[in-house]
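Run: sequence + flavin mononucleotide -> complex structure.
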Amino acid sequence: MEIDQQKLRQCFGAFMTGVTIVTTTDSHDKPIGFTANSFTSVSLTPPMLLVCIDNGSENLNAYIKGRGFAVNVLASDQQDLSSRFASPIADRFEGIAWQNSALGFPIFKDVAASFDCTLEQAIAAGDHTIMLGRIDNFSSADKLGLGYHRGQYFTRGDTA
Ligand SMILES: Cc1cc2nc3c(=O)[nH]c(=O)nc-3n(C[C@H](O)[C@H](O)[C@H](O)COP(=O)(O)O)c2cc1C
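>> structure
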């Protein structure tokens, strides 16, 4: 069957998600990160999650050949951060408050939750690569998350 990519993209967009920023460090120890909504919880025992990264990413090797990565689950007031980390800006971290996780990956201030992962496996999957992470540390705050649906951000609009 011939697949209409635009229609498929729209169809995927019908699925409401949260928004994350996946971070790691490159070979020069520089922090890097990108916005991702392909985050999925995978397993409690052992604790695992996954994120899919586009094979076209300039930093693909830093993620899929590195030690691991952190997943920042964005809070409802962090839409600007999401846009920034999805844009072609030279230094996405400039002027942004963050600190290193125990494993040494960037965690942003005031996120709804974060996961600190070692890379368990990088699985080739079409034009993306599935990054399967083993969760070493995690943290959750009492905050509403940022939502994404059909190309637009949304929030629940009530209190956590
Ligand atoms: C809400 C949202 C979700 C996204 N989800 C993903 C994703 O799951 N995987 C991915 O590779 N890119 C995703 N992107 C696109 C990347 O954030 C964007 O292409 C970014 O520029 C890639 O970073 P890079 O230039 O460092 O490769 C998403 C963008 C937005 C706005």
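>> summary
The chain has three helices and twelve strands. The chain has one domain: 15-154.
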